[in-house]
Every structure is written in C-alpha cells, then in structure tokens.
Amino acid sequence: MAYYELPFSEVQDVITRLGYKLPANYFTSNLRFYLDRTTHGSTLSRIVYSVLDEMDGSMDQSWQLFSTALFSDYYDIQGGTTAEGIHLGVMGATLQIETGCYGGVRLESNEVSINPHLPQNWQKISFKQAYRGINYQFEITHHDVTVAADAGTHVKVAGKDYSLTKNKAATISYK
User: Fold this and answer.
1) Between 59-70 and 88-96, two packed helices, what is the crossing angle to 10 degrees?
2) Alpha carbons 54 and 114: distance in angstroms, whole number
C-alpha cells in the first residue's frame, strides 16, 4: 500500500535507510503474493492493485482490475449495494487511474510531471486539471503529450523540463 500512496523512489529510500536489502524481484513477488490472497471485499482494493500492476508493468492485469472497478456499480458486483447509491470513492479513483496512472500526470509538490503509460487499446486521453491556480489541458497519445496552461509555467515530461507559454499548446514527444 505504501507504493500506492507515495512515489516509488521515496518508499525505496525509506527501505534503504532502514537497512533492509531486498531481492531484485521483491516488488513483483510481494504484489503477486497478496493479489492471489485478496478477496476484494471492497471495490477500492481493485483500484490499488490496478495502480500497482501498472507500476509493475502488468498492463493486462491492471486493465482488468481497472475495468472491473469502473463498472462495479453498473454491474452491482457487490451484490445489491448499488441500490443504496454509487460508490463515489471508486468512481473518483478510476478517474485518478485514467489521468495519473495511465495518463501519467502527477501533481507533486511544486511540479507537474507527465510519464504516460496508456493501455494499448487507447488511442489517446484528453482532460483538464487545475493545480496551484493554473488550469492545464492535456492530450496524451502513445508517443506525444500536448499540454497547455493558462499561465506561464514548467512541466516535466519523461524526466525532462519544458517551459510552457501562457495559452500556447506545446507538443512534446516522449518516446
């Protein structure tokens, strides 16, 4: 769960500072161990595992878990709870997977970083987000990020810094 909440490198730093030396494949092994034992009594568990599977490069598994969570209320997979109302937490979390996980847009500290990992069956994703008083527009494909902002600012795409001019879209290739 720590990897879901915090940047991967930050969790790695904590583990290292605590003096632990983990095997090279520990993340995958640990993820598979717990996923095989999780009953998904909460639809939110699919959200967490979807993100972790994307981080681990298991896009098929990530997509399956994401899709199940996305349609959980529609198909009433919890067996009668939809009549009581939709699960807004899951609906919001699926949007976070679309924009933050698959779209790769992370809003961390003072920085907007973009590291896309779109599912193969998507051509692109387009969305708007506001962060620190700036409104951003994103269009992300498998090769390019087009981003515009209503103020001059900076973004980081695939680890490289780019300056944005107010109200002028910039298209940046990341592959």
Assistant:
1) 150
2) 15
Q: What is the pLDDT of residues 142-173, one digit of tens each?
A: 999 999 999 999 999 999 999 999 999 999 99
Which amino acid appears at position 111 of this protein? E
Task: Say how far apart CA 59 and CA 55 lie, in whole Å.
Answer: 9
Identify the domain boundary among 84, 102, 120. 102
3-state secondary structure at position 29: helix
Our count of domains for the chain comes to 2
What secondary structure letter does DSSP report for 166?
A: T
Cα dist from 22 to 31, 69, 152, 159, whole Å:
14, 31, 43, 26
Report how many helices (DSSP H) and strands (DSSP E) the chain contains, helices first: 6, 8
The rounded mean pLDDT for the chain is 91
| Domain CATH for 123 | 2.60.420.10
